[in-house]
Design goal:
Blueprint lengths: L2 E3 L4 H9 L3 E5 L9 E5 L5 E5 L2 E7 L5 H8 L2 E7 L6 E12 L6 H5 L12 E16 L14 H6 L4 H10 L22
Antiparallel strand pairs: 1-8, 2-3, 2-6, 4-5, 5-8, 6-7, 7-8
Length: 194
C-alpha cells in the first residue's frame, strides 16, 4: 500500500540518496506537445537541499526538453526505483526551476554537490524542485538489477570543451535553445562558469 510523506527525511531520504539512477518527467502545457522522460545518474549529481526541496545537476546533452518545460510551466515528477533490496518506488511531484550560471544562487546551490567534478560534464543548469506531493508505492514488478559502475563516456566527450566551445556546441544543436515544440530552452550564449 502506498504512503504519502510530508517531508523528505529519515528512511525516505536515505533511500533516495542511495539510488544510482532516477527519472524525470515533464510536459508542455500544449496537449499535443512532447512529453519528456529522462534518466539521470552520475554519482554525486543529486542533492536533498531541505525536507521539501531537492536539486540535480543538468549536464550537456543533445536535447533540452526538461529545461524548456520547466521554464514554461514548472511541472515535474522525479521517480526512484529500488533495483536491490525491498521493492519500492518513490515519486516526488512538484515545481521545478532551472538555475543558470548567471543566477546569483548558482554558487550556493553548487556547494550542495561536493562529491562530483562538474567540469568534464558541461554543466549547463541546476534543476531545483520543490515538492508538492511525496509518495511511495510497491515496486513488486521492478526487476532486481545490479549496479556495476559509472560510464565514462559523458565525461570523455565533454571534457574537451571549454565554455566557448560548449556554447558553440549548444548553438548548433536544434533542440537546445528551443525545445522540440518550440519553447524557450537554454539561454545562449552560455555564460562562463563562475
Amino acid at each position: 500500500m502506498g504512503k504519502l510523506y510530508e517531508r523528505i527525511d529519515g528512511r525516505l531520504r536515505t533511500f533516495i540518496e542511495e539510488q544510482h539512477i532516477f527519472f524525470t518527467a515533464t510536459a508542455p502545457l500544449s496537449g499535443d506537445g512532447t512529453v519528456n522522460l529522462s534518466p539521470k545518474g552520475l554519482t554525486g549529481s543529486f542533492a536533498v537541499i531541505d525536507d521539501r526541496t531537492v536539486a540535480y545537476l543538468d549536464f550537456a546533452g543533445s536535447h533540452n526538453e526538461t529545461i524548456a518545460h520547466l521554464r514554461e510551466n514548472g511541472r515535474i515528477t522525479l521517480m526512484w526505483c529500488a533495483f536491490q533490496g525491498p521493492p519500492t518506488v518513490v515519486r516526488v511531484h512538484g515545481r521545478g526551476e532551472p538555475v543558470f550560471r548567471a543566477d546569483p544562487r548558482w554558487k550556493e546551490l553548487l556547494a550542495h554537490f561536493p562529491d562530483i567534478d562538474t567540469r568534464p560534464h558541461g554543466l549547463r543548469a541546476i534543476i531545483v524542485v520543490r515538492a508538492d506531493l511525496i509518495r511511495d508505492s510497491c515496486g513488486f514488478a521492478v526487476p532486481f538489477m545490479t549496479y556495476e559502475d559509472e560510464r565514462e563516456l559523458h565525461a570523455q566527450r565533454f571534457s574537451r570543451e571549454d565554455d566557448a566551445s560548449l556554447s558553440a556546441y549548444f548553438e548548433q544543436k536544434p533542440d537546445i535553445a528551443t525545445s522540440m515544440d518550440g519553447l524557450p530552452g537554454l539561454p545562449l550564449p552560455l555564460p562562463p562558469a563562475p
